[in-house]
Amino acid sequence: SGPATIAAKIMNIPLFLHEPNSFPGITLIYASRWAKKVFYAFPESEKYFKSSKNALLVGNPMEISKNNFDRDILLSDMNMDINNKTVFVTGGSQGSSAINSVVNDLLHEKRNFNLIWQRGSANYENIVGKLDKSLKKNTVIKPFIDDMNSIYEVSDLIISRAGAMTLTEIAAFKKPSILIPLPTAAEDHQTKNAESFVKKGSAVMIKQSELTSSILLNNINAILNNENQYAYMSKAAGSFYREDALDNITNTILESIGDYK
User: What gap in Å lies between CA 230 and CA 48, rounded to an integer?
Assistant: First the structure.
């Protein structure tokens, strides 16, 4: 986005920036010096915009449609035990080979929770088709899930990467999470995103290099089996979501350029 921000400055066109991650990119930090407004989502980002007098904490805009549904019916339709807690694992729409490998091992561990696993389409039929039927008990494995809202609502714990919009979804649904940041993300921004959630008390972070099925299982059980901790993590997660983010951004822009024309 560097050339576009420079062009805006040269042509005297109002520039507005939005940073969804905890750690802003170099281009955005530099361009914030002449931006009319800078919107950011994580409190930790504020220190990077000291040269801008117009930085505003607004969150990430995301429209969440919460469904009217019966949890027990939805779980029953998926052949899940309605008396169990439910864990949702996602490595993104394409899946994550590192997370998939560990979750595949997790299926062989003794567990007392339902598991919904979005693993991506890569090798899906080959791998899932070979799983023993006993390993699929109280487990739903999908290459891709269309109705994410229902899955978030029915789930008690989320295991995922730490991209900005995934974290916004987790916050919107007030779900505790176990975050496994993508180590190759630009400027390691996913780790910094995860650290923000950990600092607030809404998540546990496991580095990909340290991830094993036993470590993952221990963390899952520790969260699901401690009601007080679970309630605290849920409330902390919800504090990151700002329902009025889109309105604040659009209204601020309209107010700022009211006399532009």
Answer: 32
Q: How many CB atoms lie within 10 A of CB 11?
A: 8
228-260 burial code (b ≥16 CB/10 A, e <16): eebeebbebbeebbbeebeebbeebeeeeeeee
CB–CB of 91/114 below 8 Å?
no
Q: Label residue 133 by pLDDT band (50, 70, 90).
A: confident
Q: What is the pTM of this model?
A: 0.92
77-95 pLDDT, tens per residue?
A: 999 999 999 999 998 777 7
Report the share of the chain in percent with pLDDT over 90.
79
Instruction: Please report how many Cα atoms fall inside a 13 Å half-sphere around the Cα of residue 209, on the Cβ side.
Output: 3
Residue pair 23/192 in contact by the 8 Å Cβ criterion: yes
Closest to 149 in 3D by CA, of 74, 245, 233, 79: 74
DSSP string across the chain = -HHHHHHHHHTT---EEEE-SSS--HHHHHHTTT-SEEEESSGGGGGGGTT-S-EEE-------------HHHHHHHTT--TTS-EEEEE--TT--HHHHHHHHHHTTS---SEEEEE--STTHHHHHTTS-GGGGTTEEEES--S-HHHHHHH-SEEEE---HHHHHHHHHTT--EEE---TTSGGGHHHHHHHHHHHHTSEEE--GGG--HHHHHHHHHHHHT-HHHHHHHHHHHHTT--TTHHHHHHHHHHHHTTTT-
Instruction: Write down the mean pLDDT value for the chain.
Output: 92
CA distance 136 to 56: 47
Longest dimension (CA), the chain: 67
